[in-house]
Amino acid sequence: MSNSKEVSKSTIERLPKYLRYLIEIDKMGAVDISSTTIAEHFNFNPIQVRKDIAQVSKKSGKPKTGFKVKELIKDIQNFLGYNNYSEAVIVGCGGLGKTLMAYSGFLSLGLKIVAAFDSNPALFGLEVNGLKIHSMEELDAVINKTSAKIGIITVPRESAQQVCDRLIECGIKGIWNFAPLHLVVPSDVAIRNEDMAASLAVLSYELAAKQKSD
Amino acid sequence: MSNSKEVSKSTIERLPKYLRYLIEIDKMGAVDISSTTIAEHFNFNPIQVRKDIAQVSKKSGKPKTGFKVKELIKDIQNFLGYNNYSEAVIVGCGGLGKTLMAYSGFLSLGLKIVAAFDSNPALFGLEVNGLKIHSMEELDAVINKTSAKIGIITVPRESAQQVCDRLIECGIKGIWNFAPLHLVVPSDVAIRNEDMAASLAVLSYELAAKQKSD
DNA sequence: GTTATATCGATATCAGTATATCGATATGCT
DNA sequence: AGCATATCGATATACTGATATCGATATAAC
What we know:
The structure is a homodimer. Chain A is an alpha/beta fold. Chain A has two domains: about 10-80, Winged helix-like DNA-binding domain superfamily/Winged helix DNA-binding domain (Arc Repressor Mutant, subunit A); about 85-200, Rossmann fold, CATH 3.40.50. Helices cover about 45% and strands about 15% of the residues of chain A. In chain A, the strands form two sheets. A seven-stranded mixed β-sheet of chain A has the order 5-6-4-3-7-8-9. In chain A, strand 5 and strand 6 form a beta hairpin. The radius of gyration of chain A is 20 Å and the shape is globular. The N and C termini of chain A lie far apart (about 50 Å). Chains A and B meet through helix 1, helix 5, strand 9 and helix 8 of A and helix 1, helix 5, strand 9 and helix 8 of B.
């Protein structure tokens, strides 16, 4: 993989947060920003912020003032690939699926949903936000007309793994799973399980812990 | 905080996954299960699985056969508090809000949404899945009629932090945030930021990394 | 009944991330 | 102009979670 340094998952999760903040303060006229100030805003550690920045930006900050807001924005956007978008398909046009299809924010995150599928014949041909819903039979054909490499799964739990497998057969290389189960994929495929049960469990545990100490 | 051992966030995130799997194989008639088998199913490390289990179950596994499926299920459910549910309120009844309100799976995760709010007068009084939508003015009054400690935020980005602050004023102690920004809360409040941008960034990065190495 | 082995649980090691330390320096202030 | 200081970047340390090692043992197979 040529040369580019490994960047940790945790760092990558923080970068979009910094970016949103920077864009906000840029709008408000800020020119310079220090890692200290960023850190204070998020309740993060300033050293961590500085190290995160160092990994995606070659511009070095200046003592006393910090970094140039606009330069940082560019560097982070560039690193995250927000300039040139990737195509994605979505399978499952129920409540959540439709919500995601209607979400206008993906484009600015470098993601463009280019096709939608569902197994329910009642939905075939319907349009959600300009996206026609295709049958599952058309999966292969439609995907291959696009350059989509990401598949978003918003089907019920029972069919999710099967849908996942089919997407991979169709050449999909990254799975963004919203179904309530942990999908398993071959090692050459990237997977992100958006597990609400796991997330809620952590929240509840932390809530309980904080309640205890008062 | 009395005695109960600290359990790591990572462990807690895995527990619901184990649980779903165990319930599934229990239905299929499995009586015993080994950490090895669980690990294989998820592509996890068996030692990790065993350590996770050891933290929530006092029952010890037997060489050669492993653990009793039904006992494990009970212990994990008990640890995660899936028996007695906590109440939650939701603020923001747009697409995502409605989807969450309609989701029937929360009850089995120990969560019950007991009230819904929105700032749009056109929605006041409407019912979604048996939940009446209240105005934001009623926030305090309605919350205090419940024992809700968790607030789910599904409002647009612009108003999210403000909504968060108000919920905390009303006595909410845990925030589950689905708005696309990183909310900051006082240290006695638990927060879970469901940050899709962060999540997508990780997926994209891993996808790019895997694409590179072929 | 004996033996081979899968699995457990405890302890030790390793890896990766977060935090702390510290010298250097550019800027703002007097 | 000179001084005080906030911030940087590099290096070092500490912490946390993941993985490896290994002896003990219950079970399955023969």
